[in-house]
Design brief:
single chain; 272 residues; alpha/beta; D-Maltodextrin-Binding Protein, domain 2; eleven-stranded mixed β-sheet; two-stranded antiparallel ribbon; 9 helices; elongated; disordered N terminus
Amino acid sequence: MLRLLLPLAAACILAAGASRAMPVHEPVTPDEKAALLREIAASGRLKVGVVVAPTAGASFTVLDASGRPRGVPAALGEALAQELGIACELVSAPNSGELASRLAEGTIDLAFLPVDDDRRRMVAFGPAYYQSESTYLVTAGSGIVRLEEVDRPGVRVLGIANTTTIRSAARSLSRTSITPVASVEEAMAQLASNQADALALGRSSMTALAASLPGSRILDGGFLRNDTALALPHGRPRALAYAAAFIERAKKSGLVRRAFDNAGLKSLQVAP
């Protein structure tokens, strides 16, 4: 099992426009490699779930000119597939809740998700690569300037359906309620058309969203701090051990840092 924590070979990581070789380690035996590949990617391709949003974030991708998802989850998934020596298939979804469900069903092999107790029952998590804070993006017309002002009667709050963020925001609100929407794109359309006042979301993707909504502001403070981590279906111990070791190597080698930078997220800090 210890040897399964080692990479299959030295890999040159090209994902996210950054080319840099991973450190060389002892390869696993052919039989061990075959067993790992059957468990981590039974179809022969690594099916990586990614959330597509209007702006990039630690767990969000955007579509490039060719329509392919690009960003931190895509870069990390592609790098892992390259290290394994197999193709990477990026499977798009509008929100992280849908990806968690697909993982639990076994229709995708891995994803990069915010962690909470509900999801731990659905999927298995590796180590965090980012530690996030969730807060609110509010419209100019809302008049809201402080976090506590969101929790007032009549304030129209949105969150992305079936996500860690919406569950935590709902628990923190006692004078108003939060309405689920399917995607960040839908939420931003409602804010722009004055159908809502505030959006609960992770801070990592808010700067670009705020720039697209004139007069909007990102509130100081937050209602949730949590980890964002690689996730796999339960019952794949070899795959989880290997993927967890990959994330730790990716943090130490600078791969995660480069993925953040190439996605325009230079202010984000890599998790310890």
